[in-house]
Design goal:
By secondary structure, the chain is of the alpha+beta class. The chain is about 60% helix and about 5% strand. It has a domain of about 130 residues: Glutaredoxin (3-Layer(aba) Sandwich). Helix 13 packs antiparallel against helix 14. This is Thioredoxin family protein.
């Protein structure tokens, strides 16, 4: 009986997870969607979701409301986008859209450029909450894209900048994100650094560790753990440090800047070996950028502490070292 019940229940869930929500159009090719958007001069709304996301299932129920369907039919071309499918993830990357959590509401203009992107929390899962989010997303004065234009023209409203920090993060505009977060950190009073807002900025929108808010955070982790889950605090620190370390701009970092990142990783409990695992490639590339072949070679040898380098790893290192070495002796590693 239990086996039969489990089978029926799983079938029931699978059926409704895959059923077409009547508020949305059937997903077609993206070229066809853009052609239709251009012809009808309508923005495109995607609800990015995952089939096994409980929050997405809850939203799906609300999104079936007739008031929402009426709004969608009138104002946008609306589709649900399962981002567990590779082709949908590739589409978002092509549009320079990053989805850190589901469900997320993504609104593109008829030309495919991002207008507004919102991570949808439980507090917005109501008919009024969804409609307000969508109305803002298509408003030519209030959507993220319009707010960013105002910012570039000199507007510096604090709450708007918080939204822009999120928008630039989700549209992969790292340079603009770093600038905005830096200004937010400088504008936020220091006695607010350890508040919910201060931690929210670190946890949700910060991509670089080089600002006063993160400096305070990494040196006062114990204070943040008093009002936040310790795992979340560690993860927030690690995410910011690693996004900094693995960024394309990191090859221009000074030794002091890299030492600061290592210090942060040490503060959250990583061992010297774990830190070396994360930083060795960057440091070797920086050495080679400076034409310091001997320094890079010795750094690699020191990393392996005299042990034999595994074949695949040696092949990787030799590929880089050979670009700066004598053609007659392309790999200086033993």
């Amino acid at each position: 009986m239990r086996i039969l019940f489990a089978f029926v229940l799983s079938t029931f869930i699978a059926f409704f997870a895959n059923a077409q929500n009547p508020s949305f159009k059937t997903l077609e090719s993206f070229d066809a969607i853009f052609a239709r958007a251009k012809k009808e001069n309508k923005p495109i709304f995607f609800e990015a979701y995952l089939p096994n996301c409980s929050h997405c299932m809850a939203y799906d129920v609300t999104l079936k409301n007739p008031k929402i369907k009426q709004f969608l039919d009138k104002n946008v071309l609306a589709y649900q986008l399962d981002i567990s499918k590779r082709e949908n993830g590739m589409f978002l990357r092509k549009q320079k859209v990053y989805v850190p959590s589901t469900p997320s509401f993504i609104v593109l203009g008829p030309d495919g450029k991002p207008w507004d992107i919102q991570n949808m929390g439980d507090e917005l899962n109501s008919v009024n909450g969804i409609l307000a989010t969508l109305q803002k997303a298509i408003d030519p004065q209030k959507r993220d894209e319009a707010t960013l234009k105002k910012y570039l023209q000199g507007a510096r409203e604090f709450n708007e900048m918080i939204g822009l920090a999120n928008f630039t993060r989700m549209t992969l505009d790292t340079v603009q994100n770093i600038e905005i977060v830096q200004q937010l950190a400088e504008a936020l009073p220091k006695d607010k650094y350890e508040t919910e807002l201060g931690f929210l900025l670190i946890r949700k929108v910060m991509l670089d560790n080089n600002n006063p808010l993160f400096d305070h955070f990494i040196n006062n982790l114990a204070n943040y753990r008093k009002s936040n889950d310790s795992v979340t605090v560690r993860q927030a620190a690690e995410n910011t440090l690693m996004s900094t370390l693995f960024s394309s701009r990191a090859r221009k970092f000074s030794p002091d800047r890299i030492a600061g990142i290592k210090y942060g990783l040490q503060k959250i409990g990583l061992t010297d070996a774990q830190i070396a695992n994360r930083s060795i490639v960057l440091e070797v590339l920086i050495d080679l950028d400076k034409d310091q072949l001997d320094v890079a070679t010795n750094r690699i040898k020191s990393y392996y502490q005299g042990k034999e380098i595994p074949a695949k790893e040696k092949e990787f290192w030799c590929k880089w070292l050979s670009r700066k070495s004598d053609p007659k002796n392309p790999c200086p590693l033993p």
